[in-house]
Design brief:
Strand content: 15-25%
Strand order of the largest sheet: 5-4-3-8-7-6
Largest sheet: 6 strands, antiparallel
Number of strands: 8
Number of helices: 9
Length: 245
């Protein structure tokens, strides 16, 4: 099944790029020869999973990929149950509300409701953020056994995203222990300067964390203390309503 593996690697190559990719670039990123890349890309174009870039230079993901994203979202019962709760939370708090799914070293945003100031990437589902760096990831790790937390931290690439990012393992453990105590995790300028986020974990029927609800806001409008006091209890309430199923 090498051909299937290579096909998916071609699609995944676009996640590493910031621009349309040529066949030569795809071949280099995937580690195959140019003729192999050409055959795979031709098939993916014929099926609608790749398209020519608008300027005609290189390839970009096609519209069919959006259909598969739609399929995943509609088949996920947690997202269906969470949607009205997230909508109510967004309406009441007037800040960005996100649902992320736990995927080992990363969390992936599956449902996003915007605030009044968000930039383009903050609108998009499907973005991955390192578990150790995200408020949702830290809230999730707070519900994991210590050995699993240590495994995640040991296997993570502990690179900062901002000058304020916490990457020291001891300091990360302090954040996780605080989240265990509070019931939510706080991330101040960890992913974006000027941003504060609070998250609480959603647990399955066995008490294992599977997802998190995040609320994010601007430090220009909130102090960390006021944000935690106002938002923390609401996020815990929302995740409790979704936990245990």
């Amino acid at each position: 099944m090498k051909s299937v593996e290579r096909t998916f690697l071609v699609l995944e190559a676009f996640g590493k790029a910031q621009h349309p990719l040529t066949l030569a670039e795809i071949a280099q990123l995937v580690g195959i020869d140019k003729s192999g890349a050409q055959r795979i890309c031709y098939t993916l174009q014929a099926l609608g999973y790749l398209e020519r870039a608008h300027n005609g230079r290189g390839l970009v993901p096609g519209k069919k990929i959006l259909e598969r994203s739609f399929d995943y979202l509609r088949y996920n019962p947690l997202i269906e149950r969470a949607a009205p709760i997230l909508v109510n939370l967004r309406r009441d708090l007037q800040e960005r509300v996100d649902l992320s799914l736990f995927d080992d070293l990363t969390v992936i945003y599956a449902y996003r409701l915007l605030s009044k100031r968000d930039f383009f990437y903050a609108n998009l589902a499907g973005r991955r953020v390192p578990t150790f760096l995200s408020s949702g990831g830290r809230a999730i790790m707070a519900h994991l056994p210590d050995d699993e937390v240590n495994s995640i931290l040991a296997r993570s690439d502990l690179q900062p995203r901002t000058v304020k990012s916490t990457t020291d393992v001891k300091e990360l453990w302090q954040c996780i222990k605080q989240a265990r105590q509070d019931g939510y995790a706080v991330a101040v300028e960890q992913w974006l300067l000027g941003e504060i986020a609070i998250a609480s974990a959603i647990l399955d029927s066995k008490g294992r964390p599977i997802a998190a609800i995040h609320v994010s806001a601007s430090l220009a409008e909130w102090t960390p203390e006021a944000f935690c006091h106002r938002i923390g209890p609401r996020v815990i309430e929302a995740t409790r309503a979704l936990s245990g199923a």
